[in-house]
Input
Amino acid sequence: MSLLTVRDLTVTFPTPRGPLDAVRSLDLDLEPGGALGIVGESGSGKSMTSLAIMGLQPRAAKRTGSVRLLDQELVGMSEAELRRVRGDRIAMVFQDPLSSLNPYYTVGLQIEEAYRAHRPGTTRRVARRVAIEALERVHIRDAARRVDHYPHQFSGGMRQRVMIAMALSTEPELLIADEPTTALDVTVQAQILDLLQEIRRETGTGLVLITHDLAVVSEVTDHIVVMKDGVCVERGAVEQIFTRPQHPYTRALLDAVPRIDDEIGELRAVANEKNGGPA
Amino acid sequence: MPRFLLTRVTSGLGVLLLVCLFTFVVFFALSPDPAVQICGKNCTPEVIDQIRGNLGLDQPFWTQFFHFVVGIFAGRTYGEGAGAVECAAPCLGYSFQSSQAVWDMIVQRLPVSATIAVGAAVLWLLAGLAGGLLSAVKEGTFLDRFTTGLTLTSMSIPNYVLALVLQYVLVVKLQWLPFPQAVAFADDPGQWFANFVMPWIVLAVGYAAAYTRLTRANVLDVLRENYVRTAYAKGLAQPLVWRRHALRPALTPVVTIFGMDFAGLLGGALITETVFGINGVGKMAADSIARNDQPVIMGVTLLAGFLVVVGNIVVDVVYTAIDPRVRVNA
Output
């Protein structure tokens, strides 16, 4: 059975000029333990897709279609049922780890909170143990001390590790990482990607990786969905997309990936059919 | 932490010294000769000269200023010989009108102003926070718009108008409140409360409106923060997200504003005290301005400056307790 099956997912916003689809008729498939990349530029609907999977789309938006986690349909679930899925079965890592962590609380408390939300009756002592272990699992040194530190006391890469630790503390079946490396330095990016790979191998967690960076996707995932203007324009295995891109947009994205053997030339704009200009 | 306090206190003293200098320049150098004022109508040049000598008005500006500042910390002596007057440590001079020590006048009236400030602060905090939170929770609903309308109305009613209307309606027309009489709390708590309840309301209305707006805006801002989204993504229920992740960041700025407002108010509510005839620091300031009683005006100005500086320091200390980012960087 597929871990995640998304069919005909559509997220619609009411606008003064009529309804607008941020995501339209999207299909996604992910096997247990698999890794799927969703690629596209800003505004392509990839982040909205990740939020919509968890039912976290903005209140004004309407979500239709089908999102199945194993045999459970998430679309049409009550808020209370969705809450039990969020953070426990599907966990999320966001783009900017500094603003995604509450500056007023220690990272320990924020991890404990995620764990205790789904394990009612857990004592603080046990939750704290879990938090320390979670920090250790993402290779934060001196975790027993660091657990009492505040987010601003961590570096960018370390903060993202904290986010990942928080997401993994409940041992979710699916991890959605929305641009997890975008706000980070290149070297730190590589470390975080390695960490995600390692976690996948060790825990068997399914991974949906959302990014605008094809290089990132190619390192971590085995399947890619290319999105543009809320629609999937191309899908396939990583090698297939990289060697034989079918859609011109995918080719443009590939051209935007800098290569070490590239001649230094003019920066090419990714074609945008709507207004003909650079996107 | 102690170092941080030390720098704050030092810079606070610097500010106070500047306030001192400024008021000194304004009230002594730019206003009519105090000696002539003290002397009264039937006055001879000799008497005026003697008063000048006693007050040290014949000295150069900086000498006068120096004596004034030293007087605040160490006390000073006016005049010489048998007629000398000893002015004890926090010496702010003597009122030209009543010859009372300014410090004693302030000490006498400060509790009254503090009573007004504390009562009003309790009212406006309760109303402002409740109104702001309610407005934010019910954003865009009728209740939200009603609250917004109410706050805008209350902000645009001048204090003295509201005071007069309240007095007329509550005391004269409906007779819900007795006529104000000066009583101590211990003698007649009922009358005491009745005396203060109108000033409290009048003062609180404007602040409550402002705090409602501030709280609403802060809460709505914080609810758009990424960490609130994270909290939902963790599967936390909305009440918990609000209580733990939204409330504390949203109310932190309110603490700052409250510290300033409250400290300012402790130094006397000029208009409200005057309208209600309450003998606090504010009314004293108004009276002394009307009579050009310079030492009193200076004393009140310095007191207000002092309270604001202290309020600032207290806010900074409280801030380190509620915002961990400040705590470590300080």
In short: The first helix of chain B runs from residue 2 to 29. DSSP finds 14 helices and two strands in chain B. Chain B touches chain A at residues 225-227, 229-237, 244-245, 248-249, 322-325, 328 (CB under 8 Å). The mean pLDDT of chain B is 85.
